[in-house]
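Hi Q.,

Before the meeting this afternoon, I wanted you to have the MU-OXO-diiron prediction in hand. No need to reply - just skim if you have a minute. The sequence and ligand are here:
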Amino acid sequence: MLPKKVEEILNVQIRKEDYSSQLYLSMASWAENKGFEGVSDWLFAQAEEERMHMLKLVKYINEREGKAVIPGIDTPPADFGDVAGMFEKVLAHEKYISGSINEIVSTCIAENDFTTQSFMQWFVTEQIEEEAGVRAILDKLNLLGKNNLYMFDRDIMSMRARGGAGQN
Ligand code: FEO
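Predicted structure with the ligand bound:
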């Protein structure tokens, strides 16, 4: 049985993962409309991964005899300025999510829920990888220069194909 506080904070995380999925879907659509095929593919796949994170939490809560609450959809922004600015937003968002995951782990420890603490380790590792992946993309963008976006777009496509940044 899940401690009430753990159940509550996991349900808050379901909402955050769901929002992450919607946010990246909106970014993917924005990038697709601008003709960035590689960037939009990366974001569409990222949106799917966030949905998978949400489902993982739903199933876990229910397995532990809690009650997962499926949230309504918050509308994400639709305009992201430029590609570099958009990836800065992705990194900021992932840092925010990492903070939430740490908060959940702290709650598990405070509530002596070591089962959930262990379950959350997957998310801790995932966040390290996701942040590192987005940082690698931003480094590449800086190296290629913001005027070489066509090259960057091709490159991000091959990063994804090689199982690189952001892919699990
Ligand atoms: Fe599920 Fe990227 O956090």
